[in-house]
């Protein structure tokens, strides 16, 4: 238990020391580099959205039954269904 309390005390000292050495809020500014990075992220998200919509338009949402398709496997209606249901 002593090691745990020592560890917590050390972490608290580091946090307090970091808080004291932090710059003042009026000294910190994002500047043009931060704005350019933010704008680049917005452009990337817009391009990804357009690409996503383009891919969704290619998808065929029509559900097809593989047994009902032409050339599909034919079922023998004389043999019983192993699952117990008719058909």
Task: Give a quick precis of the structure.
By secondary structure, the protein is an all-alpha fold.
Low-pLDDT sequence parts: none
What's the pLDDT, averaged over the residues? 80
Q: How large is the count of helical segments?
A: 2
Helicity, in percent? 40-55%
Topology, number of strands:
0
Decide which structural class fits the backbone: mainly alpha
Beta-strand content? under 5%
The secondary-structure element order is: HH
Name the overall outline: elongated
Q: Keywords, please?
A:
single chain, mainly alpha, 2 helices, 54% helix, elongated
Describe the structure.
There is one protein chain. The chain contains two helices and no strands. By secondary structure, it is mostly helical. The termini are far apart. The mean pLDDT is 80.
Describe the protein's topology:
Blueprint: H1 2-20, H2 31-58
């Amino acid at each position: 238990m002593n090691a745990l309390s020592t560890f917590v005390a050390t972490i608290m000292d580091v946090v307090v020391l970091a808080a004291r050495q932090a710059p003042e809020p009026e000294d910190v500014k994002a500047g043009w580099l931060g704005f350019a990075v933010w704008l680049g992220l917005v452009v990337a998200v817009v391009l990804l959205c357009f690409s996503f919509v383009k891919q969704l338009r290619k998808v065929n949402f029509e559900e097809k039954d593989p047994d009902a398709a032409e050339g599909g496997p034919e079922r023998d209606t004389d043999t019983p269904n192993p699952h117990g249901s008719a058909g």
